[in-house]
Write a structure and sequence with these properties.
The chain has 324 residues and is of the alpha/beta class. The protein has 11 helices and 12 strands. The strands form 2 sheets. Strands 6-7-8-3-9-10-12-11 form an 8-stranded mixed β-sheet, with helices on both faces. Helix 3 runs parallel beside helix 5 and helix 4 crosses helix 5. The longest helix has 18 residues. The radius of gyration is 21 Å and the shape is globular.
């Protein structure tokens, strides 16, 4: 493990997820969606994962749960390496996911009770209908929804209510770890706050660990203990939340934070916005050396020669840049 990655509930080592994309007759190219990502999440901790669309955040979360089979690297969960079919089944009893879109992630043909109880049915946890209904009522209580909602269908609910149902489903097996894949990005701002507070309350009550994937850096800073920044499949910076937001080290992190609005109008007017030039390179045609060099205001010829490794640069801090 790299610097600052103490043994925890979940560890990844050099995790890779590559996709082969057809480009013509008998031709294809490889997209390196996740390319050598290593990190650790401790029990009861929230690790925030941020970056632009297409950087590989969601792919990391889905690969951790083997929704995508990893191309390379290792995943350890709760002290065991996850590789065999049996180990994957056992992990999925203790790890779950809350998806981004509460409209497409829930089956409209199933009642709320059937949606929430689906993990219980798959893993054959409950033996009777009474046990099943009792567990569903407990989960509805946990996400603050009335018991009478159990017999209804998804089209009867708002986006915020649907996401609560999705969270209840994720809690069904009593997990230790949940991947939160942009769980509030499709919701109104007022509802976002309610869902974020619910995640925090559930973590305090149940000791849950989260990988919290999001675009909104203010949300990630609020809920996360540590934050990891990705760009085109690679981690470019990792640090405690307050340290990363107050004193970013990597040029990409600096540009992301400069785009976050400040509520104080005087500070907002006086600060300098870092605007990156050019477009994000195609993942099928990445530049040589550092992936970020084509947009980096500090890039030199050295950046084109080789990709900088993610190295320790202080207590529990890492960055991938030749000039840090």
């Amino acid at each position: 493990m790299t610097n600052g990655q103490a043994a925890g509930l979940l560890q990844t080592e050099d995790l890779k997820q590559h996709f082969l994309i057809p480009t013509g007759f008998l031709k294809s190219k490889t997209i390196r969606a996740v390319d050598g990502v290593s990190f650790s999440i401790r029990s009861g901790e929230t690790l925030g994962l941020v970056g632009e669309s297409g950087c590989g955040k969601t792919t990391v979360g889905r690969t951790l749960l083997y929704l995508y089979k990893p191309t390379g690297g290792r995943i350890h969960f709760d002290g065991k390496e996850i590789r065999s079919e049996e180990s994957i089944r056992e992990m999925r009893k203790k790890a779950s996911i809350v998806f981004q879109d509460p409209y497409s992630s829930l089956n409209p043909r199933m009642t709320v009770e059937d949606i929430i109880a689906e993990p219980l049915d798959i893993h054959q946890i409950v033996k009777t209908k009474q046990e099943r209904s009792h567990r569903v009522r407990e989960l509805l209580d946990a996400v603050e929804l009335p018991h009478e909602h159990a017999g209804r269908y998804i089209h009867e609910f708002s986006g915020g209510q649907r996401q609560r149902i999705g969270i209840a489903r994720a809690l069904a097996m009593g997990p230790k770890f949940i991947v939160c894949d942009e769980p509030v990005s499709a919701l109104d701002v007022s509802i976002q706050a309610q869902i974020i507070n619910m995640f925090e309350d559930l973590q305090a009550e149940l000791g849950l660990a989260y990988l919290f994937i999001a675009h909104n850096l203010n949300v990630v800073r609020h809920i996360s203990k540590r934050i990891m920044v990705m760009y085109l499949g690679k981690v470019v910076e990792s640090a405690p939340a307050a340290a990363l937001c107050d004193s970013p080290m990597h040029p990409y992190t600096k540009s992301l934070l400069s785009a976050v609005p400040i509520p104080d109008p005087h500070k907002e007017r006086s600060r300098t916005r870092i605007v990156l030039e050019g477009d994000v390179p195609s993942p099928m045609d990445l530049p040589g050396g550092c992936n970020f060099r084509t947009r980096c205001p500090e890039a030199t010829s050295r950046c084109a020669e080789a990709a900088p490794p993610l190295t320790g640069c202080g207590t529990d801090r890492q960055a991938a840049c030749w000039y840090i």
